[in-house]
User: Which sequence fits this backbone?
């Protein structure tokens, strides 16, 4: 199914229901349909057509949703960009995706102007807020377009979105997702809009992230009201839930812990919440156990997936979060609570050894998935695609094992990715920055387990003979050259890095020696 049908169906069934609530603005499904039509026609007047890329750089807002569906009606390809990116990363992504149009939030205008000098593809710039000389105004485009509805020609397997994700190389890779990448999951797991059932979903995960995108797709198809928060802030989140009587939420573990740790947590009425889905990073067992106590009767869902899988591939359902029964049953549920659940029915999930053979129960290997919703590949990176998708199986890079009950447990990362608060950090990228420091001989990056963030970034640094540098020097050097979530939060100095005979750094040994918790003052 073409994803534009999600909006068409919901608009026909619940036209007067609020589709989005963003700060002081409420937009009904009927109004959303009109705005999408006008924007798509305005973009067509600018010369945007099938296959053209349309980029977005902004924190969460209602324009994200409108722009995606407008792009899809034109058979164009939507490219949401990480708003935490630095200039060199943004320049790389823009040159890689080569968008014709970019929509820009006010705080990112200067950054885009800086990068645009080195990006040949950009023909049109659209400001979402304050006027910018020489740029189009978002609302002016809406006003200039006519109301006629464009019917897209794309079929299920055609490309509709490119999401950039951190990889093992220096810069992010563009993950190509088709209409079927989204619709196969939505049609299998979400009930269509119902005029008699009103549900609201607070959306606070970033809309450049697969979790945010899937939340939008599910909400629109189900005719839910999206309560959009620009960026997560615990106090405001609770105020929105209380005021709007939100029923559903998607959170990363860090957000859930920040919420429960907030001094005003028990001062707000959050009783309207019925479902909390969490994922994007490992959930510490103490945090989910606390959440189960703090939200009695809540349906918790642990959804595991990644950008390359386009959505959830394994799930720990609500019943596995109910810690009731006899002693043996509770003990078994506590064990399952540390898992990522079982594979969904419409996805094949297996665990393979290094030779590509399925492992036995209890043995650790790389988790791989097969099914309609997986990515088409990496944009402009055939070698990386061939390395990740082999014989129809997408290898996730996550190591894990499966128990006798069918539950899958994570056991590390094949490529040493670090997941900090739901964000993916490539050690190789940070290491390259570190090794460009004049005083650094060599460096390695590891992830340190952390209750608040899942993992924190730690640098293990060897200084050149006769050179000196402090932890603050190293951290500041990285802060100026990397997105904030990628910079090391602690630095350990040592005489040399352990290596194997082939010269590869033995990160296993580094983790054994240097994985003590980060002390944040």
Assistant:
């Amino acid at each position: 199914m073409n994803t534009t049908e999600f909006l068409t169906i919901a608009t026909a069934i619940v036209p007067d229901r609020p589709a989005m609530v963003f700060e002081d603005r409420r937009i009904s499904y009927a109004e959303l349909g009109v705005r999408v039509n006008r924007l798509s026609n305005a973009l067509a007047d600018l010369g945007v057509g099938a296959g053209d890329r349309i980029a977005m750089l902004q924190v969460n807002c209602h324009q994200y949703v409108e722009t995606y569906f407008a792009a899809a009606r034109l058979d164009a390809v939507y490219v949401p960009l990480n708003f935490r990116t630095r200039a060199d990363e943004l320049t790389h992504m823009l040159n890689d995706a080569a968008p014709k149009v970019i929509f820009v939030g006010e705080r990112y205008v200067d950054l885009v102007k800086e990068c645009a000098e080195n990006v040949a593809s950009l023909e049109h710039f659209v400001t979402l807020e304050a006027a910018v000389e020489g740029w189009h105004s978002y609302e002016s485009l809406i006003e200039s377009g006519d109301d006629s509805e464009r019917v897209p020609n794309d079929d299920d397997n055609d490309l509709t979105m490119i999401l950039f994700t951190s990889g093992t190389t220096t810069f992010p890779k563009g993950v190509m997702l088709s209409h079927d990448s989204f619709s196969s999951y939505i049609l299998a797991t979400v009930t269509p809009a119902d005029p008699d059932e009103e549900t609201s979903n607070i959306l606070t995960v970033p809309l450049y992230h697969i979790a945010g995108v899937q939340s939008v797709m599910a909400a629109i198809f189900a005719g839910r009201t999206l309560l959009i928060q620009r960026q997560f802030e615990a106090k405001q989140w609770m105020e929105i839930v209380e005021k709007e009587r939100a029923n559903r939420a998607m959170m990363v573990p860090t957000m859930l812990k920040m919420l429960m740790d907030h001094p005003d947590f028990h001062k707000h009425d959050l009783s309207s919440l019925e479902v909390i889905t969490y994922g994007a990073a490992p959930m510490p067992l103490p945090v989910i156990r606390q959440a189960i106590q703090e939200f009695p009767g809540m349906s918790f869902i642990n959804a595991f997936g990644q950008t390359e899988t386009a959505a959830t591939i394994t799930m720990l359902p609500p019943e596995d979060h109910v810690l009731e029964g006899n002693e043996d049953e509770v003990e078994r549920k506590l064990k399952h609570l540390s898992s990522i659940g079982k594979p969904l029915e419409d996805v094949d999930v297996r665990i393979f050894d290094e030779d590509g053979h399925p492992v036995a129960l209890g043995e650790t290997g790389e988790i791989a998935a097969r099914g309609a919703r997986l990515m088409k590949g990496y944009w402009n990176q055939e070698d990386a695609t061939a390395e990740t998708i082999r014989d129809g199986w997408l290898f996730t890079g996550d190591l894990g094992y499966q128990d006798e009950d069918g539950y899958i447990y994570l056991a590390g990362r094949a490529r040493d990715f670090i997941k900090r608060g739901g964000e993916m950090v490539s050690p190789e990228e940070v290491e390259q920055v570190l090794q460009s420091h004049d005083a650094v001989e060599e460096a390695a990056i590891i992830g340190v387990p952390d209750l608040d963030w899942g993992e924190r970034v730690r640098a293990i640094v060897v200084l050149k003979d006769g050179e000196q540098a402090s932890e603050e020097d190293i951290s500041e050097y990285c802060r100026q050259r990397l997105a904030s979530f990628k910079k090391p939060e602690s630095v350990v100095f040592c005489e040399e890095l352990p290596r194997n005979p082939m010269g590869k750094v033995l990160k296993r040994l580094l983790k054994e020696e240097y994985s003590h918790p980060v002390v944040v003052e």
Remarks:
- DSSP finds 16 helices and 27 strands in the chain.
- The domain at 8-178 is CATH 3.40.50.12780 (Rossmann fold).
- The mean pLDDT is 92.
